[in-house]
Amino acid sequence: MMGSKKNSFFSIKYKLTRFLFFLASLPFIKKIGGIKNLFREGPYIIAANHASHIDWLFVFNRFTAIIKRHIHFFATTKYYSNPLFRTYVNWSQGIWTDPKIQARSLLTALQYLKHGEILGIFPEGTRSPDGKIKKGKSGIADLALLAKVPVVPVGLIGTHNVLPKGAAFPRFARCEANIGGPLEFKEYYKDYDEAVDSKDSDRIKKIEEEVTRKIMQKIARLSNQEYPF
Predict the structure, then answer these.
(1) Interior CA angle at 72 toward 67 and 78, to 5°?
(2) CATH number of this structure's domain 4-164+173-222, picked from the four choices 3.40.50.150, 3.40.1130.10, 2.60.120.280, 3.40.605.10
(3) What is the pLDDT of residues 22-43, one digit of tens each?
(4) Rounded distance, CA 223 to CA 122, Å?
(5) How far apart are CA 27 and CA 32, in angstroms?
(6) Is the pLDDT of residue 67 over 70?
């Protein structure tokens, strides 16, 4: 999956795809703040709010161009039938996730982190229908705690105005991204490992909810919102 030969073949196709998407997204992007918070080395997770299909281009296409690193993002299998999206996900080594077999995508994601790669996640799990931040799912905390890697929060502003859920074509509007400083959860590692080892589901759930809430609160502030959950 991560052999150098395959990555070399992949990078040629992906550079071409990324360039085409870069041109497509250029008119809509006004500003990206906090670029210094995107590390050029080491494993970490990028987590952003999700209100539009353009979020993919913004976070994963533009950010990879900036830091010259792959971002392995999650994509739900319900979009697999879309040939353009399927090609983009496969060429960029995205991680297909099926709600019925979530363990498979989790293991794939952990392997990428183990090999020093970057993951990209929309913790809400789906696009917000009204642009307002929704409750985050605990998968982001699960990955951060198991892999013991930092989370870089990203607040997207205005993407809902460009391509809201249900729209067939983009509208001309300008959007921004605010990249926050890395969040680390070292104080939870020991308790979480013990809870996992003892199969204490209540304790695991409590820790994951706390970590998820901290991540989502930061994403909300970066996107000029409140997180009410």
Answers:
(1) 140
(2) 3.40.1130.10
(3) 777 777 788 899 999 999 999 9
(4) 14
(5) 14
(6) yes
Residues 6+ apart with CB under 8 A from 163: 52, 53, 54, 169, 170, 171
The highest-confidence range among 11-20, 80-89, 130-139, 157-166, by mean pLDDT, is 130-139
- Domain spans, the chain: 4-164+173-222
Q: Check residues 201 and 99 and name the one with the higher pLDDT.
A: 201
Is 174 in contact with 30 (CB distance < 8 Å)? Answer: yes
Bridge-based pairing of strands 71-76 and 95-97 is parallel
CA–CA dist 114, 148 (Å, integer): 10
- Residues found in the chain: 229
Q: Which single residue is written with the structure tokens 């297909």?
A: 96
pTM of the model: 0.88
Q: For residues 124 and 78, is the Cβ–Cβ distance under 8 A?
A: no
Cα 218 to its chain centre, rounded Å, is 14
For residue 122, what pLDDT is reported? 95
Token duo for residue 172: 């001309």
Distance CA 216, CA 221 (A): 9
The residue with tokens 């799990």 is 125
For residue 181, which phi and psi values (nearest 5 degrees)? -70, 155
CA atoms of 209 and 188, how far apart (whole Å) = 12
